[in-house]
Amino acid sequence: LGITVSPDPIELIAGAEAVVDFTTPQATLEIAGLAANARIVHVIGTTGLSEEDEAHIAAAARHAPIIKAGNMSLGVNILTAIARRVAEALDDDFDIEVVEMHHRDKVDAPSGTALMLGEAAAEGRGIDLKEHAIRGRDGITGPRPRGDIGFASLRGGSVVGDHKIVFAGPGERIELTHLAGDRSIFARGAVKAAMWGRGKPPGLYTMSDVLGL
């Protein structure tokens, strides 16, 4: 197949036009620096990144195009755009909840996709997600604060990734759902992003940019 396998990322990046990266936060930061030095496209699908990690990635994006998304699936990114529009159209009479389920081996929660949906809903509402996110409930929590965005994470079996964003209003409810049945959807989206990024100026892009949303 003509595929080079090497433990040395510098060797691989030296002859590449793009790097597709679904690794760990620590590895992603190293790859971001190498890709920036080589001035090649870096597609990041890694989740569980801290605020400090995000700052390092933003710095690397000053030197090369970086396309970063919590989920590379084309369907999820369409769902995210729809969620933003729905949140913009509805006031806080409609409570927003994001529910996700993944396989038992996933190590971070909420998933990057759930956070992406939450961010989109917060943008639609014109609020800061950090100030309005509720991550898990236990015991006597009292009434639900108006305007907050809740997250629930389920883990079990071999589930590739299920995501649902719920807009629950008085007497009615809207549920937007995406079910991933095959991990190849992430690869297809990542390759599309890498192809789109060729020739783009340095900057931090998202799949919304790739899809023109």
From TrEMBL:
Residues 75-211 form the Dihydrodipicolinate reductase C-terminal domain. Keywords: Amino-acid biosynthesis, Cytoplasm, Diaminopimelate biosynthesis, Lysine biosynthesis, NAD, NADP, Oxidoreductase. One of its GO terms (molecular function) is 4-hydroxy-tetrahydrodipicolinate reductase. The keyword rRNA-binding does not apply. Its EC number is 1.17.1.8. Residues 2-72 form the Dihydrodipicolinate reductase N-terminal domain. Pfam families: DapB_C, DapB_N. SUPFAM superfamilies: Glyceraldehyde-3-phosphate dehydrogenase-like, C-terminal domain (SSF55347), NAD(P)-binding Rossmann-fold domains (SSF51735). Pathway: Amino-acid biosynthesis; L-lysine biosynthesis via DAP pathway; (S)-tetrahydrodipicolinate from L-aspartate: step 4/4. The keyword Amino-acid biosynthesis applies. It catalyses: (S)-2,3,4,5-tetrahydrodipicolinate + NADP(+) + H2O = (2S,4S)-4-hydroxy-2,3,4,5-tetrahydrodipicolinate + NADPH + H(+); (S)-2,3,4,5-tetrahydrodipicolinate + NAD(+) + H2O = (2S,4S)-4-hydroxy-2,3,4,5-tetrahydrodipicolinate + NADH + H(+). GO terms for biological process: diaminopimelate biosynthetic process; lysine biosynthetic process via diaminopimelate. It is an enzyme of class 1 (oxidoreductase). One of its GO terms (cellular component) is cytosol. Belongs to the DapB family. This is 4-hydroxy-tetrahydrodipicolinate reductase. It comes from marine sediment metagenome.
